Fold this sequence. Notes:
Blueprint: H1 2-28, H2 30-53, H3 62-72, H4 74-80, H5 83-100, H6 110-133, H7 140-165, H8 180-194, H9 205-232, H10 248-269
Amino acid sequence: MGEKFEKITTRTIFIIILLPIILLIIHFGGILYYAAVAFLAILSFWELRCIAKHKGYQTSLLLGIVLTLLFLYTQNLSILFSYNLVKKVFTLLLFSIIFEQFFLKNKSNSIMNICLTIFTSIYIGHLMSFFLSIIDLGNGKLLLIFVLLITWVNDMVAYLFGIKFGKHHPFPYISPNKTIEGSVAGVFGGAVFALLFSPFLPFKIPLLIFLGIITSVSGQIGDLFESLLKRNFMVKDSGKIIPGHGGILDCIDSILFSTPILYYIFKTIL
């Protein structure tokens, strides 16, 4: 128990330091924000590549990163260039990833290497592209902050409540520390926290509660999915870059799911 609370303290200190930086980057937006998202995408791709190595798979590094960035900026590239040109670039990258496998010494995992490269690029690049799309909505910066804060509040409440009161583990083979009690508390915390945005967003109280619930639930699904990935590759954390959290993916896994879902909801109701 002492180790868990030490981890909570480390997490809290890191969030207090990092949160103002994140809010400033979102506030300034523009090239700074786009560059920050690209940097996170590259680090996340690298982490998943390292995770895959635990099972002997060798995803394409340079081509995979380029494909990830292509998925990340597809919408922006489609505005600057024709759809056919973007499609040609994707086709060239796909063939290059396949062709690269011919030159690897160990060819027994070639198909899995190709599949993992493409999957990782979609999982990271496509889902993170919604970090950019949501900004383009009316009042997009505040909407993004709404999603980020509620997702993180849900994570923190679920973690704390699960440690203290959690008894029922619905997915012991995927994430043994996740509990039903913690999950319910996280959703409740996210819904309550959403009410703090009432003065700033043109949503009525019932809608804010609904958005808080959806954000929390989708975030928990994203967290479970990353846990499934890690269990398949037999690793505990995606990395060690963030104190108290693990890797970049351990920190953004929830918002990779909550942001796309909330983007489409916002786009519908605004």
